[in-house]
Amino acid sequence: MAAQRAARARGADDAVLVGLGGELLEAPTANLWWRSGQTLFTPSLDLGILAGITRAVLCDLAPGLGLKVLAGVFTAEDVGAADEAFLSSSTREVMPVIELDGTPIGDGRPGASAASLQAGLRQQATGVR
Question: Whole-model pTM?
């Protein structure tokens, strides 16, 4: 939570934790995602990040939306080149990320994939179609 407080002191809404080798991990209370083209990227569980329930649901929903999911080892440069980014958690669900360290991601607005995944998540939670 210290990372989150430090991020807020710098004017950011949240922090992204980074490993010693510069690899992206997760936010203090959420999983990190970004989309380039039709591929969603997220840090690998092999990095020791939380295997979030919402993360698992999004992995299941993505193919139905025409999105491939690729979990691996990535850096901030990978997110910087993305079309959109978002965080996921059971309390915040899908939360768009519009900039990273002051640099806009994509066009600097919430992306369509985050909105579609949020709708799918709500549908799963409520059972309403």
Answer: 0.89
CATH number reported for the structural domain that contains residue 49 in this entry: 3.20.10.10
Number of domains in the chain: 1
Tens digit of each residue's pLDDT (9 = 90 or more) over 64-79:
999 999 999 999 999 9
Torsion from C-alpha of 67, 16, 43, 103, nearest 10 degrees: 50
Tell me how crowded residue 106 is: count the other CB atoms within 10 A of its CB: 19
Within 10 A of 80 (CB to CB), how many other CB atoms are there?
15
Domain of residue 12, residue span: 2-126
Q: In terms of Cα–Cα distance, which of 101, 108, 111 is closest to 67?
A: 111
Q: In the numeric block, which tokens belong to residue 90?
A: 């059971």
Count Cβ atoms below 10 Å from residue 3 Cβ, excluding itself: 14
Residue identified by tokens 């939570």 is: 1
Residue 12 makes CB contacts below 8 A (sequence gap 6+) with none
